[in-house]
Specification:
The chain is mainly alpha-helical. Helix content is 48%, strand content 10%. It has a three-stranded antiparallel sheet, with helices on one face. It is globular and about 65 Å long. Mean pLDDT is 83; it is low at 1-21.
Length: 338
């Protein structure tokens, strides 16, 4: 039983005790599945923000379910006064909406809350704050990064992860969530099945293709084959694709446990450092750099916008994927004009 199921099942849980007038016509099983309809990490983030909201409401002697729009605006303003991060405040507003929607309560008007947050953002910008976007690397830099990895089993694993994550425009959760049954090699390419993702709220899953690279140091297909061969040599043909490893006197012991999301960030930062690459001003290299770099490379190669959106799991009709076009050597429209 997952932690999420335990929370939804427990009558003594904070979620149950803080939500009066529950939908009594729902069975316990239905409540469990409703809670599970939201990705687990998102649910726990919402739950954390919801508790903050409840505590504030109790301290100010106001109701929280349903909440009046002015009280929500006051809460957002109080968090701005306290210097909370913009992302946490946004998540807090979403959490309030989520729990009102989950229990069919009248949702507050959020327009004033968003106006307050917009004013807070402007104030932070005037004070010198700038968005901390994940820095991107070029294909040349990527090859330099993989060339720094050791030639042992751990290096083979990390190289495969770095190249697959870049080629798939993948989030770290998507990469570490891959099982061996989610990959296959077809006509010299990798076909990946992304079973779960933040964008896929209905859990349909999606397939994507990664072509072989033109250079051994950027060939995701070859790198992943090498890692699969390492696993096969240990008799591993199913279960998690990217696994924990322990160094022993005789090499490495590969465990059954899959890697966590922090691992990809460590791989990126270490390879960047060892390759002597410096992050541009205002940006940092981290796990999300694989997703941003893959998309940026595709934009620079003039790949169709729809194809880029499809590869990264973004809406093909939306514009979100364009925010991932972050070349560090921005072309200037004034070149040659002055």
């Amino acid at each position: 039983m997952t932690a999420l199921v335990r929370i939804a099942h427990s009558e003594e849980s904070d979620v149950q005790s803080h939500l009066p007038e529950l939908r009594t016509q729902l069975t316990r099983s239905a409540k469990v599945w409703l809670f599970k309809s939201v990705p687990e990490q998102t649910f726990f983030a919402y739950q954390r923000e919801w508790y903050k909201f409840i505590r504030w409401c109790r301290a100010h002697d106001v109701g929280h379910l349903p909440v009046f729009s002015d009280h929500l605006t006051n809460w957002v303003a109080a968090r701005c006064d306290a210097g909370d991060s913009q992302s946490a405040i946004k998540q807090g507003i979403s959490a309030v909406v989520f729990f009102h929607d989950q229990y069919k309560k009248r949702k507050p008007d959020r327009r004033d809350a968003w106006r307050v947050l917009a004013a807070y953002r402007r104030q932070l910008i005037d004070a010198g704050w700038r968005p901390d976007e994940a820095a991107t690397y070029t294909i040349k830099q990527l090859r330099a990064m993989t060339a720094t990895l050791p030639q042992d089993a751990r290096g083979i694993r990390d190289k495969a992860a770095l190249l697959v994550a870049t080629g798939a425009f993948a989030r770290r959760s998507q990469l570490v969530g891959l099982d061996m049954g989610d990959i296959r090699f077809s006509e010299g390419k990798i076909v990946l099945f992304i079973a779960r993702s933040k964008e896929d709220q209905k859990g349909k899953g999606r397939r994507l293709v990664i072509d072989p690279g033109a250079h051994p140091d950027s060939d995701a297909v070859g790198a992943l084959r090498d890692w699969v061969d390492v696993l096969a040599s240990k008799g591993i043909r199913s279960g998690p694709l990217f696994r924990r490893m322990w160094r022993t006197t005789y090499g490495y012991t590969i465990k059954d446990h899959r890697m966590d999301g922090e691992w990809l960030g460590h791989v990126v930062k270490t390879a960047i450092k060892d390759a002597g690459i410096t992050a541009p001003s205002g940006r940092t290299y981290r796990a999300h750099s694989t997703r941003a770099s893959g998309a940026t490379m595709a934009f620079r190669k003039h790949k169709p916008s729809v194809a880029i959106a499809r590869q990264g799991g973004w809406s093909e009709k939306g514009t979100q994927h364009h925010t991932y076009n972050r070349p560090e050597d921005q072309e200037s429209v004034t070149e040659g004009l002055m």
